[in-house]
Design goal:
1 helix, DUF6497 family protein, globular, seven-stranded mixed sheet, DUF6497, alpha+beta, 34% strand
Amino acid sequence: MMASIATVVAPALRAEEAILLPSGMSVSYLDTIHAAPGPEGLTIRFRFVSAALADRPAGDDTLADMTWLCETFALPRIASTGPRPEQVIITLADRPVEFGSSDPEAIQYFEAFRPEGQTCTWEAF
């Protein structure tokens, strides 16, 4: 079971607090997954949900929103002590899905970024 190898950490934001994205869509923070290795080494995953995602096709706005989440939400929450992650993965979903599980009914978008100072550089999967 994947949950046993992953560590879930909740930053200071409560899950019910809305985050307004540059596109105007509102998302809620779900959780942060540490200790689940990624293809590039140390990886931290930040997961967000918004029911509005079901009515919005993926496009340039989606990548821009995910980049914004990486730079303004994820990077400030990455510890400045200890090893720095090689990759940050941002997940947007229309409903909560248990980490490591699939839900064929759920809409989920995943984007990988390489943290570089105060910016996140998109890395195509």
